[in-house]
Amino acid sequence: MDISANEKKTNEYRERARELVKQMTLDEKVSQTLHTAPAVERLGIKAYNWWNEALHGVARAGVATVFPQAIGLAATFDEDFLETLGDAVSTEARGKFNMQQKFEDTDIYKGLTFWAPNVNIFRDPRWGRGHETYGEDPFLTSRLGVRYIEGLQGHNEEYLKVAACAKHFAVHSGPEAVRHHFDAKATRQDMYETYLPAFKSCVQEANVEIVMGAYNRTNGEPCCGSKTLLIDLLRDTWGFKGHVTSDCWAIRDFHEGHHVTKDPVESVAMAMNNGCDLNCGNLFVYLKQAVEEGLVDESRLDEALVNLFATRMKLGVFDHKGDNPFDKIGYEAVDTKENRELNRKAAEKCVVLLKNEGGLLPLDKSKLKTIGVVGPNADSRAALVGNYEGTSSRYVTILEGIQDYVGDDVRVRYSEGCHLYKDKTSNLANGVERYSEVKEVCEESDVVIVCLGLDATLEGEEGDTGNEYGSGDKPNLSLPGRQNEILRICAESGKPVILLLLAGSAMDIAYADAKVPAILDCWYPGAQGGHGVANILFGECSPEGKLPVTFYRTTDELPDFEDYSMEGRTYRYMKNDPLYSFGYGLSYTDFDFEYIKADNDKVTENGMNVTVKVTNKGKYDSGEAVEVYVKSIPSDKASNVPNFQLKGLKKIFLKAGESREVTVNLPASAFALFDEEGRQLVHKGNFVVYAGNQAPDERSAELTGKRPLELTFECGETFEL
Length: 721
Prior knowledge:
- The chain is α/β, with parallel strands linked by helices.
- Helices cover 29% and strands 17% of the residues.
- The chain has 3 domains: 3-326, Alpha-Beta Barrel (TIM Barrel), CATH 3.20.20; 337-549, Glycoside hydrolase family 3 C-terminal domain (Rossmann fold, 3-Layer(aba) Sandwich); 591-720, Immunoglobulins (Immunoglobulin-like, Sandwich), CATH 2.60.40.10.
- The chain has a 6-stranded mixed beta sheet with strand order 9-14-13-12-10-11, sandwiched between helices. The chain has a 4-stranded antiparallel beta sheet with strand order 18-17-22-23, with no helix packed on it.
């Protein structure tokens, strides 16, 4: 979008909003700061509910395409695809909105303000909401977040297609159980190096319309009432022009959980005065009292309303029907054949091949008579969708996808094996009631596909789960219940075993790594997941996903969950070898990186372009991620230097035998590190640039037998960006 044209139009909307606000009474103004904003009929303002969700498809409002969960989309390592998918989601959003408006339906989840994406950093695999994010890396999260927002908001110079939201600002990643009173303490260095970059990119590159505050405090300030975050950083430093919303009922936590205010009036004053414009919840009704008592200046309330009405005007809802091109999108755009195909393609692109000993995969159905499918996630719809999900008109489970693929040519034997997390599938049984069935399925089958993992009842948001784990966080990285026992029975059967992991986070699968010949991480692959995964299993396409998170070996090596220091966390700072590394993922084909070159021989303020030649030397057409990492080796004083960091990414598709030169730009910031004061410095010393299809760590090299190409550069003097 042309920024100057966009700014001009935004200024026009803001002026219209000011004129509207001037005509409102104090009661009317206060009413419009709640997420359930009522109609003000005398001014032609319709009722509007600000709360809507589109994390991986339009959610919670009836039928829509349910794409793979966000963590699975992150595994595509494909920012172009994220924009394509975001565009499909916003088209369905407009189709549903236009239908709902026709019937004057303004209920919750019926607006055009979508509280997605979640660009928090998945710093700890125990965090229940991690599967809502794009993983543990700030660069990958930035790129995918920006492009998903651009897909949602569109590129029209006058109107937003929908309004997207970067959440939860900031430094929010568990534990869920304490989020209403927890203070996430992070150094300035960790803030600027890890927790803030994705938000900054969403604001400055994608022009995201909404930012949502987090429940927790950050360094002592409640995020939804933090002057440091919402005014000093977001507005004054980054130049944010949209509106800020609280997380739902988070302002109540100021006095009930954080105890930084004494009552609701002080809480709403703190939120409003420090830059929060909209209250998801009902506490902002106290704003009238806060204004009357002089705790909030009415001009600040007016400013909040201008921010809010400007968003609605950018969406075209105050204009005549038909003035905005998105009014023409009908309900026929929802749940289309094209989006089901896109859904299946997304499921395929998400899958990460972790192990393929002896080339067991892909399977050749002409050589199989019976396939065994075992496990609690094999025929589970819940294991397809994650959380914040919509309703699909059809769900294809893994079992159904395999059955559909092989048809009558191959017999498919199935056993649930065990409950997902309980000790038994029936309260009257002895706890091993499916073991004999599993053993018989293995005995009859030529190959056994075991489907294990979690679903969103086991990892999710506090208050949004229904099992014994309660808060939504995982107590550890183990497969719950009797799942490991089921896997062991299959592995000891003597038959070839393929593990399909359906979960939204890293799990302890060390046993599978040692004993199972093939492992696929399928995440929560969406409503078409069964068809997508079957296509991978049987070689209709090659797996191309990469891990957006580190798979640790045990929980024991993790720092304390409540410690927000990045030391010892994620591939960037961890000291132990992982089970599987960030950026790792195998293929059915063989990509060869033949050479690397750069257009500069030193690191300067101009950065550089790095070019590699990639050849698909295998037999499968396939996508591949070109991953570029930078390792800083300062010769002057620098603390907490990362191991290496992803700083460049380009997804390509090569046919078998095809070669291509790929150029990735590395700006000077790719070589910079933040210090304890938050200054961004390119240090005097050496830098190593790595380019390949994996990270430059020893474990990835051990698993693939390959290493990325590398170049070493020098920087003569330290300089600040």
